[in-house]
């Protein structure tokens, strides 16, 4: 990467338009001071870092007030470029350029649809209804799956020296060879992972939460950032047998899962119904209205509406 590209990088960073990898690039240079071998103590090192970064921020702030001038960003780049080069960032730039070309292929399942995928490394994925994942096209250096929405059962093929990584928002699951189920619906506040074979490591924003073993399930609350670990429930894989299993779930979660599996939207105007918890097992072979009728009957509610939109009431 030449000086012109570096200037453009810092122009985007200073102007707040840098993407995630580009922000990490500049932040990496700042963190590189931790790796320098200097004949100073920790307190002095911390002070130097703070003073240098503070000075850079002041200069950037000053230059922002002159954005209308054509070459404002050149002055900011002139401040940062010598420091950047001195920190050995060009090596990292070369690494970033090579790693940034990683491409992904997206796979989805529709309402009530389930799909099995076999990755190039031999790993088998079973997708539940209404799920979306992205799989890295090049698995030679790192095996990455982005679980964007839904539920997936992973039977990971062991590949020595190349961990298998599943990313879902800030949650990262890392394994070598094992089998486990992840439920991570975008609009449901809980993330759960149940291990069937082997072990997995689960981390939140880079901080390890738990090393899960066989027959352990971790349930993570996205709002509170808290989690519990419990024995794996017997029916956690029943969705692969054609069942929607609701186990003491709130109304909103029930409505999302019913829509994913049956394509029908359930709503209500009653607070009591909204505050109720729902436990039942529904065959996904049912018609949407049949599933809604069973669900309402079990919880002593009435229904009205058509095949696409059903209202629960007392």
UniProtKB/TrEMBL annotation:
Q: Which UniProt keywords apply?
A: Membrane, Transmembrane, Transmembrane helix
Q: Which residues form the FecR protein domain?
A: 106-201
Stored InterPro entries: FecR (IPR006860), Ferrdict_sens_TM (IPR012373)
Q: Where are the transmembrane segments?
A: 72-94
**Keyword flag Disulfide bond:** no
Spell out the protein name for this chain: FecR domain-containing protein
- What are the leading ranks of the lineage? Bacteria, Pseudomonadati, Bacteroidota, Chitinophagia, Chitinophagales
């Amino acid at each position: 990467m030449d000086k012109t590209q570096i200037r453009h990088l810092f122009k985007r960073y200073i102007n707040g338009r840098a993407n995630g990898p580009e922000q990490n690039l500049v932040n990496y240079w700042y963190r590189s001071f931790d790796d320098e071998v200097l004949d100073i103590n920790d307190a002095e090192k911390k002070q130097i870092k703070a003073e240098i970064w503070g000075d850079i921020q002041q200069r950037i702030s000053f230059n922002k007030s002159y954005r209308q001038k054509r070459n404002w960003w050149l002055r900011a780049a002139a401040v940062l470029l010598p420091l950047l080069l001195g920190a050995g960032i060009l090596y990292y730039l070369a690494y970033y350029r090579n790693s940034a070309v990683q491409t992904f292929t997206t796979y989805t399942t529709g309402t009530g649809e389930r799909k099995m995928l076999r990755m190039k490394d031999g790993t088998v994925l079973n997708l539940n209804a209404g799920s979306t994942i992205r799989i890295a096209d090049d698995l030679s250096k790192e095996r990455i799956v982005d679980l964007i929405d839904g539920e997936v059962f992973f039977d990971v093929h062991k590949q020595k020296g190349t961990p298998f990584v599943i990313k879902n928002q800030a949650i990262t699951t890392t394994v070598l060879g094992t089998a486990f189920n992840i439920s991570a619906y975008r609009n449901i506040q809980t993330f759960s992972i149940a291990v069937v074979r082997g072990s997995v490591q689960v981390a939140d924003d880079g901080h390890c939460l738990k090393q899960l073993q066989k027959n352990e399930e971790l349930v993570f609350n996205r709002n509170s950032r808290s989690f519990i670990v419990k024995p794996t429930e017997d029916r956690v894989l029943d969705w692969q047998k054609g069942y929607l299993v609701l186990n003491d779930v709130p109304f909103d979660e029930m409505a999302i899962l019913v829509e994913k599996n049956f394509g029908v939207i359930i709503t209500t105007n009653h607070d009591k119904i909204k505050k109720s918890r729902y436990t039942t097992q529904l065959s996904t072979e049912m018609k949407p209205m049949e599933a809604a009728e069973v669900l309402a009957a079990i919880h002593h509610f009435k229904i009205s509406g058509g095949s696409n939109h059903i209202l629960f009431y007392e």
